């Protein structure tokens, strides 16, 4: 077999020139860590020209390829690196991460177990193994894996945060919620930057009806960081301040930018998230046989979970979200014709009569009174266009909106009906279904379809 071009070049380099690959590899890693992916990729490939088959360059280039949406190429590169260094736990762990983020949970589990076989105290692999066991609903095994993680790494803040989340998600007694609160408290004490642990501590305390303690958690946080949007909003959600008419833009942006990397995993695998499928099925019943005909807006598109559900109906599919982090994940997923970072009501107002369908799965629960945003959606629709959305359901016959301790709004059926009528929608359908789980309990929501009338 003739030598490849790269191999030929390596063969004619002097020993001093060949040794240069270490310097270039270090530069590549520095660029990668700094987020300059273009420079990092160029330098990793330069390393592989200087030294064909260099396993670290292949490993890290594989990670980078996945970050850029080329996951299959990333898998091939890391697998090639592991043929050269088969006992490299970090490479097995990163290969597992790619499989996990692509939804291949069994393959991910195998990789994490190989990483642990190569390095039994590799707590990141132990952490990831626990996560994929939970995602596969192997609850007892996941609990044992989290417990082993905390035993191996008693100062690992993220481990306590994940155990707390697990205990609250699968709580079978008050004791489990109490244990979750202690885990969140410990996670925050170990890492004060872990603000999601602090937010979760307040939610667990509220669930335990220790409302005064929950309020105090957020009040203390506001005192330390008066400009931070999360404690301001959550203080109101716990009844410690007046509820805003809708979640502030900086709150939504902060929460979802921080949530972007783990959004799909937590919602789909750990919380049984069903809203996109339920809503798409309901909408599909109104669009029999329609294929590729519609201009569609995915309003609050997040990481793009709705894209494969909407694409069969779309001539053009646009996604909009307030979180730039979420939009980047949706961009990597591919499939949208356009993606924009914008506040939803303003975006709808800026695009009159632009869409045949406005689809919004679990976004309007961050709005209080729905009248303004539904009026904007009506204006953005063409004649006979459809609005499809879900919101969490509040009980009662009155016209009411509640800000719940989760930080999301709940709406009564009467409020949804009144806001739709006020906005001008004619044909309306409001059903109920379970959107996801929270604290081990189902979250019931309204599944809403509304049509804009035509002329005459």
Automatic annotation (TrEMBL):
It comes from the Bacteria. Residues 297-389 form the Methyltransferase type domain. CDD domains: AdoMet_MTases (cd02440). This is Methyltransferase type 11 domain-containing protein.
């Amino acid at each position: 077999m003739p030598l490849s071009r790269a191999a030929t070049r390596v063969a004619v380099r002097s020993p001093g020139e060949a040794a240069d690959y270490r310097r270039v590899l270090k530069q590549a890693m520095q660029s990668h860590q700094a987020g300059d992916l273009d420079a990092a990729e160029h330098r990793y490939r330069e390393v592989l020209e200087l030294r064909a088959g260099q396993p670290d360059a292949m490993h890290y280039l594989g990670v980078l390829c996945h970050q850029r949406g080329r996951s299959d190429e990333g898998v091939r590169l890391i697998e090639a690196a592991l043929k050269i260094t088969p006992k490299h736990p970090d490479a097995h762990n990163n290969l597992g991460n790619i499989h996990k983020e692509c939804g291949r949970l069994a393959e991910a589990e195998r990789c994490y177990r190989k990483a642990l076989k190569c390095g039994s105290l590799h707590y990141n692999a132990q952490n990831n193994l626990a996560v994929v066991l939970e995602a596969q609903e192997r609850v007892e095994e996941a609990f044992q894996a989290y417990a082993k993680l905390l035993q191996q790494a008693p100062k690992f803040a993220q481990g306590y945060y994940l155990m707390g989340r697990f205990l609250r998600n699968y709580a079978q007694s008050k004791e489990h919620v109490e244990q979750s609160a202690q885990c969140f408290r410990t996670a925050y004490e170990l890492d004060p930057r872990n603000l999601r642990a602090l937010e979760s501590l307040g939610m667990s305390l509220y669930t335990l009806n220790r409302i005064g303690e929950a309020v105090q958690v957020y009040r203390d946080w506001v005192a330390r960081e008066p400009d931070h949007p999360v404690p301001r909003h959550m203080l109101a959600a716990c009844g410690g301040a007046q509820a805003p008419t809708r979640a502030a833009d900086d709150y939504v942006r902060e929460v979802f930018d921080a949530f972007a990397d783990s959004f799909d995993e937590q919602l789909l695998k750990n919380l049984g998230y069903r809203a996109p499928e339920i809503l798409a099925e309901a909408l599909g019943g109104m669009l029999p046989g329609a294929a590729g005909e519609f201009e569609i807006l995915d309003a609050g598109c997040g990481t793009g979970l709705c894209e494969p559900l909407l694409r069969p109906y779309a001539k053009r599919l646009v996604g909009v979200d307030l979180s730039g982090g979420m939009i980047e994940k949706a961009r990597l997923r591919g499939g949208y014709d356009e993606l924009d970072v914008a506040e939803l009501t303003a975006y709808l107002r800026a695009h009159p009569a632009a869409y045949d369908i406005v689809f919004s799965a679990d976004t309007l629960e961050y709005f209080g009174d729905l009248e303004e945003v539904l009026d904007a959606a009506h204006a953005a629709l063409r004649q006979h266009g459809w609005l499809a959305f879900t919101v969490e359901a509040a009980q009662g016959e009155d016209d009411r909106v509640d800000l719940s301790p989760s930080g999301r709004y709940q709406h009564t059926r009467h409020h949804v009906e009144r806001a739709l009528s006020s906005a001008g929608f004619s044909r309306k359908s409001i059903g109920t279904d379970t959107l996801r789980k929270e604290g081990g309990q189902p979250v019931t929501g309204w599944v809403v379809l509304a049509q804009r009338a035509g002329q005459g």
